[in-house]
Amino acid sequence: MKLYSDPFAPNPRRVLWLMAEKGIDDIQVVRTETMKAEHRAPAYLAKAGLPLVPALELDDGTVISESIAICRYLESLHPEPNLFGRDPLETAVIEMWTRRAELLFATPLMLAVRNSLPALATLGPQSPERAASEGRIIETYLPLFERRLGDSPFLGADRLTMADIVAAASVGFGRLIRFEFPGDCPNLRRWWDVMRERPGAKSGR
Ligand SMILES: N[C@@H](CCC(=O)N[C@@H](CS)C(=O)NCC(=O)O)C(=O)O
User: CA triplet 174, 177, 182: central angle to 5 degrees?
Assistant: First the structure.
């Protein structure tokens, strides 16, 4: 299998992080740099369907895009350690936190960077207003994650799950606009100190 991935982009990082947690080392990582418009090359578009990374190409030529779909597929092939849930209730709760992590934190942070970092203007038009409104989404919902991490060591369960990977994979990218968890979020800061030491935090760069 081949994973098309940009080493600096947060969504491919989710897949690389999951691969590190599961010890998957038999997927060829094909560097596909968005800053060089490699994700817009006709050969890549013909495979992936959209000018976005990541995409996973199977040996029979099937291509899966969408980072979480790729991660679910890899979880099916490599069930341990379990990252998506072991029973119906746990699976639903992990899914809930994974969606919250994506919709209320990771995607807004990615879009805040995308719309404000001058170096990313090569990808297309930027909007300071959009960057600010994405920043407000993050501010609004950080307390939700802070409360959750007061009750639980990780977002989705009492162990690391996909919800944590989705949230954490975007933090390094957020650093490009000096994003940090605020001082009044001690639980998030404690969680991030744990997450940044996981093998997935450093893999694939
Ligand atoms: N929902 C998709 C989002 C993929 C995505 O937004 N990828 C970004 C990199 S993190 C990208 O390829 N951006 C290229 C661009 O904006 O031109 C997923 O989870 O895989």
Answer: 70
Residues 6+ apart with CB under 8 A from 203: 16, 17, 19, 20
| pLDDT bracket for residue 204 (50, 70, 90) | low
Which tens digits make up the pLDDT trace of 63-111? 999 999 999 999 999 999 999 999 999 999 999 999 999 999 999 999 9
Output the domain CATH number for residue 185. 1.20.1050.10
With a 6 Å cutoff on the Cβ, whether 174 touches ligand 1 is no
Spacing, Cα 81 to ligand 1 middle (Å): 26
Which ligand 1 atom sits closest to the C-alpha of 66? 20
With a 6 A CB cut-off, is 9 part of the ligand 1 pocket? yes
151 C-alpha to ligand 1 centroid (Å): 32
Could you tell me if residue 83 is inside a domain? Answer: no
